[in-house]
Amino acid sequence: MRFGLFYEHQLPRPWEEQSELQLIQDALDQIELADKLGFTNVWEVEHQFLEEYSHSSAPEVFLAAASQRTTKMRLGHGIVLTAPGYNHPARIAERIAMLDLVSKGRVEFGSGESGSLAELGGFNLAPALKREMWREGLETALRCMTEVPFGGVDGKYVKMPPRNVVPKPVQKPHPPVWVACSRRETILLAAECGIGALTFSFIDPEEAVHWVGDYRKTLAEKCVPIGNAINPEISCVTPMMCHQSEREAILRGLEGGNFFGYSLGHYYVFGDHKPGVSNVWDEFTNKRAERGYSPDVAIAMRQRRLSARLDNDKGDQQGLRGAVGTPDQLREYFRRFEDAGVDQMIFVMQAGKNRHEHIMESIELFGKKVLPEFADRDGAIRAKKMKELEPILEMVMKRKRYDAPKMPEDYLIEALPKRFIQQYGGKEMLDKLEGDSAIGIPRPQNLQERLQQGIVGQRRPNGEGAK
What we know:
Helix content is 46%, strand content 13%. The protein has helices at residues 19-37, 59-67, 89-102, 117-122, 130-146, 184-193, 205-222, 246-270, 280-287, 297-301, 327-340, 356-369, 371-397, 416-424, 427-438, 447-452; strands spanning 2-7, 41-44, 74-81, 107-112, 153-154, 159-160, 177-181, 196-199, 234-242, 309-311, 317-320, 323-325, 344-348. Strand 2, helix 2 (59-67) and strand 3 (74-81) form a beta-alpha-beta unit. Helix 6 runs parallel beside helix 7 (205-222) and helix 7 packs parallel to helix 11 (327-340). The longest helix is centred in the last third of the chain and has 27 residues, at 371-397. It is globular, with a radius of gyration of 26 Å.
């Protein structure tokens, strides 16, 4: 099993002038340290307008910076909002490919649709259609990455003529593809599409084993690959803070992990938000107990073994715990996930008001005291899994449908001046421009602007030829 870091770039109020700058620079320092200690992945999500919960609207920019501070870590664009109303599929393909080139082939392509009205409404997208928009955008982006040239698309949500979308990614046929999952239904969707499942439901290992089994069964029986390669992996997201003292780990990490859960619920489940005015942190401190996100240290200290959530004496869930504890507790916790067949654990550490120095200390302690045991086993476990899956993947790839439109043989893209002149007349001028360009004579000043205005080459109303 492998380990990664997950970033929303959380920034609870109040903010200062340099708060966002410090947040991003601290995150880059954390990633650089994690890379040196053997963490294999970093993931950053794309969100818009989700104040305090996620100041992360351009992950490809941040990950490009991270690529220059690391040498081995896989860079997870986790996720790209692939509905065309958020991001045009050709632009997604271009950005993912460029990031793959910049990082020398280390990109993971996570996709998602968002369930927040702040985002869907901000781009005028209908919530009822978000699943089919996600799919059409993802299919088109993958075609843009792999087809030479891209044969065009006449879809419900995106229409585009043939073009050769460049650059192409380093990884062939394309980087590994994932989808964000919060329910069993989406896990099964990932398996049906042959892509990895990024799970965000804060589940325990005993639940994860069923999700892994369901995923692999669905992959074998129903998968028709959405891309040109299959990524049969499952990852789980969890809060994490590691310290030699359990109490200190809880004091450092429990509140931040619970703010992560609460702020997620604020935008996706139960909240009312007034842009630029609402204070999610104050709401969290005032209402967290009634929403089931109370970071109760006393309850956490009574927990015999780590689990995703805390329970009070009545058995009611009172917040997130996850991987907050000592190295020994974390080793035992992650062995259970490893036994369940989970491929990667992804840590939410930069959450709430967790302090940068505590995150750095936790990364270092985990990297030295917990990670090596799992890294030693990872190669053999992964090889065994892929050997078991090899006949299934071979069978599943045969179901892939290659029915995308092809570019017509006579398809041409005209230069804009040529189109104007051919449309309105003036072939002599076109021939002169072509000849002058070939020998380096500059074209007349403002010609392009005049062409676009229809001044040059415009026919007289009486059809007497070009002006």
